[in-house]
């Protein structure tokens, strides 16, 4: 197969950083998330999402049903609505002023990759018939498939010299043809260069890539002005995509601050510091790529299976 450009996954893995010079800065200083009915708009089986809707009632229990658009299968979980601070009401994550909203945080059940609908029922509506949960009447409300896309479980990355190869890798694609790749960088502390290649001809530019975190914050856009410094694209080789090299700066100071600095602990709520400002999670990153394949946008659902190879090398500077 002829590969004409670097892959979305390579960019995803390499671009998950939050460089000091990049859009929105570093650490916990980020613009407030966009208000969505489902936060974040990407998740994975076993991941957490937050449902936000004014029709929820405080302390009331609900049944949340997820329905995969790809194959029609569904799964359900129970949840309870609570009043919590809402990060979308801030001017930015450094603000200590945030209004409260009724929210319900639940775990995503096993689902096929791609868009899914979310239906919320009152607990009293459900009953088990022949081992199957059935509901009397329509849901309290429903969120359409454009609000949530299911993708791969996060790929764990490390800040040591190693090569990771994933055969038959697949990622979820949303209703608009955007591909999402999840990575886990909780174990990446030191500055590291990531190099990624794959064997599908995804076509896109740095402007087509956006990173979100597990709370819905926009973490970073690939800055075109940083090409050649923070990231570099090597030409494709026979049978492979081009290779994207990206340098991720050290997060040692960031992690130390959250361990030792007064007011930056998250003992009471993992989403908020004790000083009232928002804690921005850097451990799980979802990379959105508006990719083209054979001249077309990707179809909603799952990507074709491909082999992903990622090499990590400790590096104290971009060059």
Outline of this structure?
This protein is mainly beta. It is 5% helix and 39% strand.
Give an account of the 3D structure.
The strands form six sheets. Strands 13, 15, 16, 19, 20, 23 and 26 form a seven-stranded mixed sheet that branches. Strands 2, 4, 5, 8, 11 and 12 form a six-stranded mixed sheet that branches. The protein has two helices and 27 strands. The protein is mainly β and 319 residues long. The protein starts with 7 loop residues before the first helix and ends in a 5-residue tail after the last strand. It has helices at residues 8-14, 252-260; strands at residues 38-39, 42-43, 48-52, 61-68, 74-80, 82-85, 100-107, 114-122, 126-129, 132-135, 141-143, 149-150, 155-156, 162-169, 172-173, 179-184, 192-198, 202-203, 209-213, 218-221, 231-234, 243-248, 284-289, 292-293, 296-297, 301-302, 306-314. 42% of the residues are buried.
Q: Low-confidence parts lasting 5 or more residues at pLDDT below 50? A: 1-25
Helix content: under 10%
Number of helices: 2
**What structural class results from the helix and strand content?**
mainly beta
Query: What is the 3D shape?
Result: globular
Computed over alpha carbons, the radius of gyration is 20 Å
Instruction: Tell me the total number of β-strands.
Output: 27
Residue share in β-strands: 35-45%
Mean pLDDT: 85
The termini sit apart by 32 Å
Largest sheet: 7 strands, mixed
Order of helices and strands: HEEEEEEEEEEEEEEEEEEEEEEHEEEEE
